[in-house]
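User: Hey, quick favor. My workstation is busy. Could you predict this chain's structure for me?
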Amino acid sequence: MGAILQAAVLTMSSREIADLVESRHDSVMRTIERLADRGVVTLPPLVEVSNPGLGPKTIREYQVGKRDSYVIVAQLSPEFTARLVDRWQELEQYAANASPAVPQTFADALRLAADQQEQIDAQRRQIERQKPAVEFAHAVRNTTDAISIGDMARVLGIGQNRLFRQLRADHLLMADNRPYQHYIDRGYFRMVESVWIDAEKESHPTFKTLVTGRGQVYLQRRYGQQPEQAA
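Assistant: No problem, here it is.
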């Protein structure tokens, strides 16, 4: 169980969040730390737990509260927000069964029902707020179309040169504007080779970097508002 109940405060581990969004645990931890540095979330406690998989016997993970978990998932993969809602419902149901609070009066029962409905409404509002990002991800992630960096800059609403500078600064692109191999391996970029002929009729190979559908989702999530401050 990746979530724990301590002093009536339910938390979810960073490792469980990584499983939910199908991401590496170390990437999730870095995202939490970047968001905490920016004051978007509170830096959660770091605990050492037994490792259920291969490798060292113990690993370190963050214990994240409910509100901050939504912020973290929205930063990582907003299309998984509904999955996070379902998981929190499971954890809250488990906690309720582990420590039941049975209403003793009719007024208590009404208050409990109102509290539960408020939680459901809050979760629905959270999903509605995430809809634009989710729809963008679903529309683009599975496409086979790849676009140029210039077109991607227009999608983000920034200049092409500014985007190139930011991608180089963040080590997504090399100095010659070619993507690093591990970002190609992740399916974010694709290289297209062409040939140009100079005045002496000599042919020269050239390469152009294209952003895939998966890469468009990644860059939109990372640079959608303020590229220099993106996590």
